[in-house]
Amino acid sequence: MTVVIAFIANILVAIAKSVAALLTGSASMVAEAAHSWADAGNEIFLLIADRRSARPKDSRHPLGFGREAYVWSMFAAVGIFTAGAVFSIMHGLQELNNPAPVESPGIAFTVLGLAFLIEGSSFTQAVVQARRKARAQGTSTLDLVLRTSNTTLRAVVAEDFAALVGLVAAGAGIYLHQITGDARWDAAGSMVIGVLLGVVALVLIDRNRLFLIGASSTPEIRAQVGLALQGHEEIERVTYLHLEYIGPDRLFLVAEVDLVGNDPEEDVARQMRRLERELEAHEVIETAVLSLSVSDEASLEF
Asked: 153 pLDDT exceeds 90?
């Protein structure tokens, strides 16, 4: 739902900015129009990521398709960099060398104000969702956005935040051009927007890279899972625990445990399989693999 709201907001804002850019000739407005069209295109990648990563696992993909979300989100981040950042900087440099006055600045300020309201609404929706998740995990909203495995949520928050800052930069560039008479301020606004988009794109690319190569869970989640395993009536102790993200809010769990009692080998195997299925019934555990601990291994503390 967050992605759909952001997509609709970006389409509306992109159309308004494009019209304003044509009417005013502002370099900052051209950069902002390119920014919004790039964001709209990126939301399509995010929608594809959500849909394809949600497919159920099969015999050929025993860990599911969750990591595909990071592939499509990587495409979206690269799109921000090429279609948004590079274009805005290059256009700003061109206008810096050949500055032209902004016509009808009132149109530009009106569109920027309306865009700020629309983008602000989308950003607020994304932040509310992030804050809700942060409270559930006992962390801050910023920390959750940076560390969450939900790449779509992080992308929407980052893109909307960049959009709001970009609008302020565009408005400042046009305003300084009007009060100084120097059109280079407008060109500078375009370049600032480009640099901002570049930074956001690089952060998103890096976060997707980390999850593609295999990111472990946060210490808080590891402690929660470990305590849940230790508290299970059929588990005596836990000596090894590995939790790795294999998709948005989906974990691959590998653990070594000692079971209560001293049942025959076949009964233990059945018991382990039942415990694995019980763990996989949890909404965030995609796959669980349990094995017996070696007797001389120390128990883990959580």
From this structure: no
